[in-house]
Amino acid sequence: MKVYLIRHAESVANALHIWTGQTDADLSDRGMAEQRELCGRFAYPGAELYVSSPLVRCTHSMRLIYGREPDILLPEFMECSLGILEGKKYTNLNDDKNYVEWLNTPDKPIPDGESFNSFSERAAFGFCKVIRLMCERGVSSAAIMLHGNVMRAILHAHADSSIPHSSWKIPNGGVYELETDGESVISWSHSPKYLFE
Q: What is the pTM of this model?
């Protein structure tokens, strides 16, 4: 079975370099234009099952890429609740002491948000839930529209735990392909290649 993890197009908050978390920010005009341009250059892989985070930046991206609504919305795939960071500006993922502490003390929730470990477990559980649904429905492929941190959590948990969470490179519109036997991921690759060069 193949599972395609896709990051949503640039959101308004991404464009403004604002911590978004579970704030329901829509796509930016530039994000929509860039995603349409990517769709013109790259045929995103089709699937039998389409799943998404319920947040609008993901459902809107699915409509742009696939011209359809998701079959399933999974709350487990919502972005991490970043508490007091949401709505604040950033210049780099690692330049805020609250974010660094969140990564370095994974059982401690960020103020008014959730802990790194609880978030990661939620995202990994969501991935397992999709695999179970695929087995139950007898489908061999799924496309999942996700947030950057959710993709990192899934890739770290299921693809390669030797790669630190913050080291996974996931541009807006980027895709990872995971192959699974229904029990575990047996191979992974990122595609399209030009998004990761």
A: 0.92
